[in-house]
Amino acid sequence: MAYLVQPDYVKYVCSCGQMKPITNLYFCRHCLKIRCGFCICHEVDSHYCANCLENMPSSEARLKKNRCSSCFDCPSCFHTLSTRATMVQPRQDPASGDAKVENKQPKKMYYLSCFNCRWTSRDVGIPDQPVASGGWPERVNPFANRFAQLMEYYKAIAQQEKQEKLDKERKKFAIRGNYITLTDKTGLTGAMARNRAGMPSSESTSSAIANFVLSQATEEVEELPDDYHSREVNLKMITTMPQRLASPEWQAQQVSRLQPIARPLSVKRSQRCRQCDHNLTKPEYNPGSIKFKIELLAFYHVPEVKIISYETIKPGVTSALLLKLTNPTAHEMQIQLIQPNEVPEIEEKEEPKNIEKSLEKSLNLEKDMSWKSVVERKPTLPSAIKVNNPELTFTLAQRDDAAEYDDDSHHDTNDIILWRKSNKLALRLQLTADENAKVGLPAVAVVALQYTYRNTVPPTSTQPRDHTLYTTVTIDLGIVSQ
Amino acid sequence: MTLYEGIALIQEKQAVVLDLGAHYTKFGFTGEAAPRCIIKSEFWCPMERRYKQVYDYNTTEELYDNLVQMLHLLYFRHVLVNPKERKVVVIESLLTTTQFRETLAKVLYMHYEVSGVTWWDTGRACAATLGVGTALVVSIGAREAEVTPVVHAAPLVHAIQVPPLGMQAVRVHLANILKEDNETELQLDDNVLEDILVRTCFVPSRTLAIQLASEGCNGVRSVVCGGAGTSVRVTGRARALAAEPLFERDRDMASLPDAVLQCLIQCPRDTRRVLAENILITGGGATLPGLKARIAHELRHLITVEPYKDQLHIKTFKFHSSPCEDNVCAWVGGAVCGGADGGGRAEPRDVYLRTQRLRDWACLLHNTPPDHHHRCP
Ligand SMILES: [Zn+2]
Ligand SMILES: [Zn+2]
Ligand SMILES: [Zn+2]
Ligand SMILES: [Zn+2]
């Protein structure tokens, strides 16, 4: 719970340099590195409606513009609309005086209603429907027609441009003219190519271009009625900005023109390590399930650090910090606290660039690593507070859910180890704040952990199962006080 | 290249169109008549525990992070497609800073690995919704109004006017009037002000504005906004005069209609008349009732007085209206053009990765004619 409602007091440094709480991190079992939302690749896995929990194949979702066909949201307050049924007596048709008896059966009719704000589809004159789901009149964008014409027109121009360029290229092949280089590219110079786009050349044969009607400018501009300012303003009849923007196609300004909003779909995402392309999370397909098929969260693989308590940090003063370490894995873990600058730099294995490699690159077979240069950063760690690490290696037992109920606290407690309970351990650490630490600034201690990790699924059998890994943690200790 | 990728290449994916405005972001697919979403240009920042504006940044790195988070929101919450290997059409102002452009390019090409980006400026994109090649585009945005002459589908960069007369200026003015009229220190947040502005305010015609200036605004109905406890009395004065900053001329003729005329003065003589007869007033600000009509009145008045009377020999002003809502005009232009060329004009990813440079009109590297002796080989 603390992770949900409280600020993040303890942050881990991700392999990309971002600092995040452990609950926001992933652990790639193949690279043996911490990853975060910033440095991994997100992918759309499946579309579903969060209201009716129906899955929708992505091709269908594309067709339906990512909207559910049976759920609607209130256009007034955005709450989900409910379908209400009423019984109606079929109206007697006066023309056919002797109506048949069986027609007098009352019929069920349906309308949409909002339980939150009482808006109903009848308010805006949408006729009741004979079926409970679907069948609601679909609205088309009022500008759809003109837009289609514009599309046709510009497509024809693009086609013509392409043809002309081809012709020109063929003609000017011998004297590879300046003209091509000028018009070839995007940007302002490219505008010169489009210049002809705006004014199609006279020899244009395309009917789409010939038949297109340009927009006509007029001298009249729509004026407000003369008494507009003295009319009463009824705010109940004018929509708010969120109501308008909820349906970008018709942005109704009058409340009377609001229409039910087909509910937008949501997606489940799967996440992938960019370095090795393995999945870090993969959700189950069933929209009702919150489980994952693959779930490599740091919370299950990296030792968790929590603050128990701390003394106020004062410049030049040594204070105590109580931490709790937890081993979340199913194997015993050896942990040692080290200084952040003692974490060995992981050198990227630069393979010698031989001819084969460059050939691979030219064939586009080599993995694209261009993202690394923009995603990865060197974190700037504060150094005003020094943690006096004990020269000790602690052994943390594996996680054992049954052990929670045991009461056998180990009795190897001393100055440093406060207590120990199954896979948890409480530590007392000494902090020394720098004499020059500025009063009033945040006090952040940095500590690095060296820990052993057993990879239960090594990628190949030749690779070792046991590893020594490092992680750096920043601990928020309030502000430096006087 | 695997077989699968080959198939993917044949079925060109529908590109997305991105218009990152100062207040609102428009995002959707090319070939569609309206964006899929219009949302505030802000995202929840878990580190700072607040909503953060995309344009709220001090360093390039911070901007990079903002853009990554904003695009994540747009791709995975709103249009629900993978950014990877999909093209993007970006709508931008010609006066976007190099820092912003290059950071956005990095985020798109390298962080999200999109397959290509086409850059369209607001002026050309708006004009494209009309089908005409020459137009004077007055786009009233959140922070500033941009007056761009587009001649034969090319923007005349030297004549562009960008007065800081956007909806933000109107909002600030409205807040001041409300404070005076309610005689209390109102702590209205931007959303409430926007709500008051779009639902109650209007722009009086020129004749009415003159009349109100001399007689006061007692004739204009007032209205009470908001519920119990937070209600604000919006006086007639606030309703009618909120947009007045756009038309104030006392400071160096810096009103919006002045900017339009000054832009015309900067344009080549032979284009001025055509431009004046092809004006498009658009942008989110143009949705304010009566604004377009007022600009027309002011233009027709100003052209009869000094200094424009002698410099511009324009008799008629004509106005277009684009086939879309005003606040999405530039986006729709991008959706039409980006859809029509099938992404053919996009700068492909591999080209960008080789040089990591963007073509920019302000950069001589790209604008020096090929045979000029200053051009690098
Ligand atoms: Zn990361
Ligand atoms: Zn549904
Ligand atoms: Zn409702
Ligand atoms: Zn990996």
Explain what you see.
With 482 residues, chain A is of the alpha+beta class. Chain A has nine helices and 22 strands. Chain A has helices at residues 2-5, 58-63, 144-171, 178-184, 188-198, 207-211, 241-245, 355-362, 371-375; strands at 10-13, 19-20, 25-28, 33-36, 40-48, 55-56, 67-73, 81-88, 107-114, 261-264, 266-273, 279-283, 292-295, 304-310, 318-326, 333-338, 385-388, 393-396, 417-421, 424-433, 442-454, 466-479. Residues 174-202 of chain A have low confidence and may be disordered. Chain B has 377 residues and is an alpha/beta fold. Chain B is 40% helix and 17% strand. Chain B contains 15 helices and 15 strands. In chain B, β1 and β2 (24-29) form a beta hairpin. In chain B, α2 packs across α3 and α9 crosses α11 (291-302). Chain B is globular, with a radius of gyration of 22 Å. The two termini of chain B are 33 Å apart. Chain A: Keywords: Acetylation, Coiled coil, Cytoplasm, Cytoskeleton, Isopeptide bond, Phosphoprotein, Ubl conjugation. Chain A: It is found in: Cytoplasm, Cell cortex; Cytoplasm, Cytoskeleton, Microtubule organizing center, Centrosome; Cytoplasm, Cytoskeleton, Stress fiber; Cytoplasm, Myofibril. Chain A: This is Dynactin subunit 4.
